[in-house]
């Protein structure tokens, strides 16, 4: 597999984001939590 489209490319992408913004992990976790809560609320 090539380096750009291999199975580890999303990991490298997130590492670059985290190196540029130390708070990015908390922003992403917050958004994921809100999305999960929304989806759970649809289940009744």
Number of strands: 0
State the order of secondary-structure elements, H for helix, E for strand.
HH
- Overall body shape: elongated
> What is the strand content?
under 5%
Helicity level, as a percent range? over 70%
Helix count, DSSP H or I runs of 4 or more residues: 2
- Poorly predicted parts: none
Structural class of the helices, strands and pairings? mainly alpha
Mean pLDDT: 82
Structure characterization notes:
The protein is mainly α. The protein has helices at 9-20, 24-42. It is elongated.
Short description:
Helix content is 70%, strand content 0%. By secondary structure, the protein is mostly helical.
Q: Secondary-structure map with pairings?
A:
Elements: H1 9-20, H2 24-42
Q: What descriptive keywords fit this protein?
A:
mainly alpha, 70% helix, 0% strand
């Amino acid at each position: 597999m090539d380096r750009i489209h291999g199975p580890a490319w999303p990991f490298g992408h997130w590492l670059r984001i985290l190196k540029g913004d130390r708070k990015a992990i908390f922003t992403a976790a917050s958004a994921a939590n809100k999305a999960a809560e929304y989806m759970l609320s649809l289940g009744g």
